[in-house]
Amino acid sequence: MVSNCPEFLYAWFGLMKIGAILVPINTAFRRTETQYIVQHAAAAAIVVDGATGPVVADIAAHLSWGCQRISLATTPAAGEIAWAEVLAGPSPSAPMGDVDADRVASLIYTSGTTGQPKGVMQPHRSYVIAGESFAMRAGLCADDRVLTVLPLFHANAQFYSTMGTLVAGATLILLRRFSASQFWQHVQHYDATQFNFIGAMARMLYNQPPTPLETAHRVRIACGAPVPVEIYADFERRFHLTVIETYGLSECPMGTSNLVPMRKMGSMGKPARHPDPALYTRVRLVDEAEHDVPVGQVGEVLLQSPALMVGYYRDPERTADALRGGWLHTGDYARQDEDGFFFFVDRKKDIIRRRGENIASVEIERVLNDHPAVAESAVIPVPAALGEDDIHAYVVLRPGAQTTAEELQAWCAGRLARFKMPQSVRFRDALPKTPTQRVEKYKLREEYARGV
Q1: Exposure winner among 16, 170, 202, 241, fewest CB in 10 A?
Q2: Residue 383 placed within a domain
Q3: Are the C-beta atoms of 193 and 164 separated by less than 8 Å?
């Protein structure tokens, strides 16, 4: 439970070497969130720093088993073992044999919108295959310098940035966190040639005032999603780089991807490939009855991949449901065009049902975000008086900008079908987000239900 630092890597690969299991924990978690993961995973030891140590200490005191606390802090607290002491010498009892590729390497807890987080069990095989696949699509070589601002407790930084760097023999640059205002300064200072992004990071960079540093760099490729279609071309032109949009999950890090010579703006790409042509991902789009939908129609994304989770730890029911029929059911909706490219539509739970129509919340958000006063928005379905859903929008304004709910509704009226119009708009200073900048819509739904 530490932020991006070399010690995270040392601990991670030390665990891999002896066949132990990594359980990365979000450093923003407080007591209740952390306690659930520690107890569910039955953690034998936890690496902490000065910020996370007090949270873990309170939890460890109430565990029914001994859980070692290893601290990166300059002065460890009572009951903590100093990191330097751990590095002083290997334990004579540490197992050092070969580790099978199918052995579980990590439990990555995903924050669900209902119930407790699920512990995704990923084997060693997934890390190697996903890293090799990423290095191929990003065109990484030994001369590259891969910058990651995404947290190492997140699957993206593990499977792509770190493992991609390793298999390519490249250099990994670790920053503790993302800063839109200082991003290009960091890129130039560390001479980065590639970086990954996720969530709202692309728009946040685009919304920054222009600076000479944003073109004074060697970055060739930026991998991630999404880049809003309306800024995609200008994003590449302004920042002098090529965007490779990809799609993956903690359960399946090798989903779909564009390639530099074969890509479409706004697309998730095609099924992910690997340097070994025998290793590739298969994708289906299905309806509610799990029948394949025709080209151009929207369906749920199902995946089969050589880099796939074993299941959810201590959760056989949700494992069976997610992997039924031998396919990972992602809960995401997409469509496929005539050329075989996939396009993300929405999360299954975020599809709005109104007047007999399925409406993608991202479509409405895209229109709202085009308004000159709007920095970002999030649209959620809310209960309608006559059944189905009403549409509610949360909006964050640009600094110094002003507008009204009525003005935004009029803006949408000229750009969307009437049934897609937001019935209500609320303004917020910021949207709740995960550390990887994904909007936590479940919190907005809870907020709306409370009448906040």
Answers
A1: 16
A2: yes
A3: no
